Write a sequence for this structure.
């Protein structure tokens, strides 16, 4: 019995280490709108590296590219200033020239992030967003959340959101549906701004030394068992 207890010690040590509480870590593949891979805002007219348009109004002529918008007054001066860590994006750079005749309708922006190496059930996203004009849906992996943006001049404020379910292992998608409401004649700008961050628990991976210790303990237990059977 003393031998068995001795051999069980390394096994128990490794298992205890694996069962220690894992602290959450930042999800590094989440990005604000209008930034580069280092999180720095990019120049007006740049194609956003992390957000794409997967749906645009029929007949608008827009592509899948989302551009960092020119928010120079006066046309879009009412758009909320997101600060120095994000920028408004739109289907064109010069959003102030978007014609009401062809740009009314829904725009669906998509961004992806990777939870490989994380426990997806522990993920939490928090952030703020704003749109011109309204948003009917913020979706995680094609499932709508409770978050929408409604009301007149919604683009003048940032709106909070928090998502703690609906994640999958590996690649995940976020979709923002932006509705550009109908107006008669004139210009009809539309855009999206997103500030987002997230955390999740890393999946614990035993260190090589721990695995070696576990192997020694398991081998010793097997040898002890065989010896007991032959006695």
């Amino acid at each position: 019995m003393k031998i068995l207890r001795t051999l069980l010690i390394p096994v128990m040590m490794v298992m205890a280490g694996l069962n220690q509480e894992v602290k959450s870590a930042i999800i590094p593949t989440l990005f604000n709108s209008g930034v580069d891979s280092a999180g720095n805002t990019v120049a007006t007219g740049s194609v956003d590296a992390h957000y794409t348009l997967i749906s645009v109004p029929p007949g608008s002529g827009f592509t899948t590219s989302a551009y960092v918008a020119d928010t120079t007054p006066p046309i879009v001066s009412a758009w909320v200033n997101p600060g120095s860590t994000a920028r408004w994006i739109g289907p064109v750079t010069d959003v102030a020239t978007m014609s009401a005749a062809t740009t009314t309708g829904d725009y669906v922006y998509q961004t992806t992030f990777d939870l490989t190496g994380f426990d997806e059930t522990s993920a939490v996203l928090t952030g703020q967003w704003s749109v011109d004009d309204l948003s009917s849906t913020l979706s995680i992996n094609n499932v709508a959340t409770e978050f929408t943006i409604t009301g007149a001049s919604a683009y003048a404020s940032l709106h909070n959101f928090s998502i703690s379910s609906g994640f999958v292992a590996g690649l995940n998608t976020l979709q923002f549906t932006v509705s550009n409401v109908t107006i008669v004649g004139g210009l009809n700008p539309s855009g999206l701004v997103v500030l987002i961050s997230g955390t999740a628990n890393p999946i614990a991976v035993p260190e090589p030394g721990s695995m070696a210790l576990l192997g020694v303990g398991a081998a010793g237990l097997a040898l002890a068992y065989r010896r007991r059977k032959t006695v």
Summary: Residues 7-19, 210-214, 216-225 have pLDDT under 50 and may be disordered.
